[in-house]
Write a structure and sequence with these properties.
heterodimer, A: mainly alpha, 5 helices, 2% strand, elongated, B: alpha+beta, Arc Repressor Mutant, subunit A, 3-stranded antiparallel sheet, 4 helices
Chain lengths: 159, 103
């Protein structure tokens, strides 16, 4: 150990951080996933707005199959590589995820009820189009935030 | 605060890369580790066997469909040794005034 110089130690620490970053980066949810979920929300809402049993049944089926397929693809690709250690995502990450979901759901519902109150046709579809767009644009922002938190929590990071 | 202890077994570059990958994972797939670190199957098997013998790594062999799949993870002892090793490196760097810049 005595023969190890400080610059060698710094290089080793940089390698430690870089390798952990590799694991964190491969676990990022891809941008297409957020847009897919947004589009599926619109399909579901359109079924609800049309109000025929066939439309509702078809929309629910598309939503469930689409969501399971998209989520399955993302989870499977991570399962085949590496599963992130739980400790990387601390309370801030959980708050960010819950806040993101609450914001999307709250704004979408609020907009839908507002549009319906104003007598606008297809209020749920229009609100979900806005909510889905927010999800498509906001998902990658959430991912960047979570990535920053996880990079800060990896071993060897200054905390 | 983690105690600092330089670990000769972890420190060689290849093993440091493997253990660092595992430190951020619950489980990591053999192929993912192999491709990330740029080793052959046999070279990675050898390194993992060394870490397993030291009690630092646990290997899990399973079948996905008909295909065999090997995953690895750090044991609690391996994680503790890694964190102590990182603390030892940090202490050395802190004493020198250098900064860490991941590529």
């Amino acid at each position: 150990m005595n023969e190890l110089h400080a610059d060698d130690a710094a290089e080793a620490l940089a390698e430690v951080q870089r390798r952990q970053q590799q694991v964190i980066d491969q676990a990022t949810v891809p941008g297409w996933y957020w847009w897919s979920v947004g589009a599926l929300m619109v399909v579901l809402a359109a079924g609800v707005d049309i109000r025929t049993p066939a439309a509702i049944g078809g929309a629910v089926a598309v939503f469930v199959v689409g969501l399971l397929s998209a989520t399955g693809l993302v989870v499977r690709s991570q399962f085949l590589r590496a599963r992130l250690r739980n400790g990387l995502l601390d309370g801030r990450g959980v708050v960010a995820i819950l806040g993101f979901v609450a914001l999307i759901v709250g704004c979408t519902l609020g907009l839908a009820f507002g549009l319906r109150g104003a007598g606008v046709p297809y209020p749920a579809t229009l609100a979900c189009a806005a909510g889905g767009t927010a999800m498509g644009l906001g998902g990658p922002v959430l991912m960047r935030m979570l990535r920053r938190i996880m990079l800060g929590n990896r071993a060897g990071s200054a905390r | 605060m983690t105690a600092a202890r330089f670990d000769e077994l972890i420190h060689p570059p290849t093993r440091l890369a493997i253990v660092s990958l595992l430190a951020a994972s619950q489980w990591a797939d053999f192929k993912f580790i192999r491709d990330s670190v740029g080793l052959s199957d046999s070279a990675l098997s050898k390194q993992l066997a060394t870490l397993e013998q030291a009690g630092y790594v646990e290997l899990r062999r399973a079948f996905v469909g008909k295909r065999p799949r090997t995953s690895a993870r750090l044991t609690p002892a391996g994680r503790a040794a890694f964190e102590q090793h990182v603390a030892a490196l940090q202490r050395m760097v802190a004493g020198s005034g250098l900064t860490i810049a991941p590529r």
